[in-house]
Amino acid sequence: MKAGGAVEGGEVTKVPRGNRVFAIIDLILRIVAISGTLASAVAMGTTDETLPFFTQFIRFRAQYDDIPTFRVFVIVNATVCGYLVLSLAISTFHIVKSRAAKTRTVLIFLDSIMLAAVSAGASAAAAIVYLAHNGNASANWSAICQQFQNFCERTSGSLIGSFGAALIFILLIFLSAIALCRL
To answer: What superkingdom does the record give (predicted)?
Structure first.
């Protein structure tokens, strides 16, 4: 048997060396996505701003949990972050055993579900952030970002990591599909 080959039915077949490279890139992308979703969840979850009114007894307060869409955003990003941490074990397994087809198929399926979840959460939160910045004259909703600037900056910034994680999930799905085709 040659080095780098596997025996199938008495024949020596070549194991694609690129699958190990794909597995290492997969692991790195998952770590980057973990940092993006965790930063998004923490940034949104700690968003809070209080404005004093005419007196010190009357205050206006804006918190992320005042808006249910932002709560869903935090929950989705935390869930996706937890999934990514758990999927690191499978990604590490693919570095060691690059011919694992069943686990790659499972990862493609689960990554697709997480892509849908993080895209839905980020898109819904982006709609609320848009309303906070611009308001809606037809519904008589005024923009609140002139008063709550710090609140709006943090909520807008938290969307970056979440949409970045969605882009990384797209790359992970393509990467796993290419590695699966090469087996």
So the answer is: Eukaryota
44-67: pLDDT as tens digits: 998 877 766 656 666 677 777 788
The kind and range of the H/E element at 60 are strand 59-63
Query: Which amino acid does the sequence have at 100?
Result: A
- Look-up of token digits 């490279």: 21
Boundaries of every domain in the chain? 15-49+63-182
Residues whose CB falls within 8 Å of the CB of residue 91, separated by 6 or more in sequence, listed in order: 23, 26, 27, 30, 107
Model-level pTM?
0.82
* Residue-wise pLDDT tens digits, 102-113: 889 999 999 999
Our CA angle for 89, 158, 83, nearest 5°, is 20
